[in-house]
Amino acid sequence: MTEEEDYIVQNPYQPTEKEKLAIEELVNKGLDSGDWNSKKTGITEFKNHMREHMYYEQNCRCAYCRTELPIACCFLQREHIVPKAPHPQWMFEPRNLCFACDKCNNFKGDKEVLRNRYAVAYPSDSKDFLIVNPFLDKYSDHIELKDGIIYIGKTKKGRFTIDTCQLFRPDLALERAKKKMETENPDTVRTQLLALLSSLPILDEEKSKALENFGKVVKIYKQKHRD
């Protein structure tokens, strides 16, 4: 795992005065999850500024799979670490906001990630969270990238994160194998991928499809690098 992947966010987004006033207005009337979609200028600016700020604070990588996402062509999901539907009071809390890839965000959904779902104040300690928190946790303390391809949980929190965001999905393994191929022999990487896919809790059909797709990637790579 690279240093860029193994980040801890040090600087949550700090809203502008205009954004603070818009948020305060919603808080005063009583928050519900629908307020996230408010058309108030201060709210839309807050959401856009937060996402851009967090993109670079997170080294351009998803909070959960740590895959690098090109801002020019990927839709960056604004992510509530503690989901807003059951916990609307923290909807605009900067320490609860980051960005995630579309798939991790959707698989995580509204799953509970707090040890104490009845907490009154926003939790500030790593032990309060069931999931790896990009503000509080060093990723490599909880998740190992075996051969740089497959996610292995080292702790209960790591395993919860893998299961919740389905980091065992074959397209993620394929993407990491493609990246690894930039510095290693493609045939060696394919052999590693084949061995690692056998350990994933997915259908044989999905494994075969992943290998088939990687074969196409290798073919394109070899054509590009032909002497």
TrEMBL record:
| Organism, as annotated | Segatella copri
Record protein name field: HNH endonuclease
Query: Which superkingdom, per the lineage?
Result: Bacteria
